[in-house]
Amino acid sequence: MAAIVRAYALYMALNWEFDFTLHDMAHIRRWWVNLILSKMTHARKKRCTSAMSEAFKEETKQQEKVQNIGILMLPDAVLLEILLHVVLEEGDAALLNLSLVCSKFKSLVDTDSFRKRAHFCWLDSVTK
């Protein structure tokens, strides 16, 4: 949460448009740290640089763990609900697009039961 507040403060101070997302926070933090380090004296900069290097390594490890979980690790029932919402938002073209993403998506959206469910959910949303 503090990173977001700092990002808003930075953008306000520089009179920039708020065009960042939560995914940009790691890059903004690194930029902020590099900006601060560039203004430090040599001895203090060396100590801070090594400490920040370790912190960034740990952050990278944490991000890799999150990325390794992936959407394909979700149970099929959960994945079906997500894919159903995608099809309802994007229409019939989403069925083809999802089939091209990976074989697991293809096996889930190519079933008659999924297509019927998507069609009935769409009909339900149109009639209400």
UniProtKB/TrEMBL annotation:
<feature type="domain" description="F-box">
    <location>
        <begin position="68"/>
        <end position="118"/>
    </location>
</feature>
<dbReference type="InterPro" id="IPR036047">
    <property type="entry name" value="F-box-like_dom_sf"/>
</dbReference>
<dbReference type="Pfam" id="PF00646">
    <property type="entry name" value="F-box"/>
</dbReference>
<protein>
    <recommendedName>
        <fullName>F-box domain-containing protein</fullName>
    </recommendedName>
</protein>
<dbReference type="InterPro" id="IPR001810">
    <property type="entry name" value="F-box_dom"/>
</dbReference>
